[in-house]
Design brief:
single chain, 96 residues, mainly alpha, three-stranded parallel sheet, 5 helices, 11% strand, globular, DUF4325, DUF4325 domain-containing protein
């Protein structure tokens, strides 16, 4: 299943927008879907946005399970750097 981030939220820097994405992703994952999350046209996500979206899901389902089911796509170099930094923080326990 493909979800385009800009179809779900209008920004990628607030907790509110992050939570909105969390609800959409959680619903899609409950249906047993693997998700391709397109970042096309979106700005680089803030840590607040990621905490309220990816962070909540990772805490609920575990990092490995999350990474196997949610696949970012169409990411810029800056977006990829932010996502990589965030995931590395979870691996090291900084976000947990």
């Amino acid at each position: 299943m493909k979800i385009k981030l800009t179809d779900v939220v209008s920004d990628t820097y607030t907790n509110t927008a992050g939570y909105t994405l969390y609800v959409v992703l959680k619903s899609a994952l409950a249906g047993g879907n693997q998700i391709s999350l397109s970042f096309s046209g979106a700005s680089a996500p803030s840590s607040s946005f990621l905490n309220s979206s990816f962070g909540n899901l990772i805490e609920e389902m575990g990092l490995d399970n999350f990474l196997s089911l949610v696949k970012p796509s169409e990411v810029t170099h800056t977006q990829a750097s932010m996502l990589k930094h965030y995931i590395q923080g979870f691996r090291s326990g900084a976000n947990a």
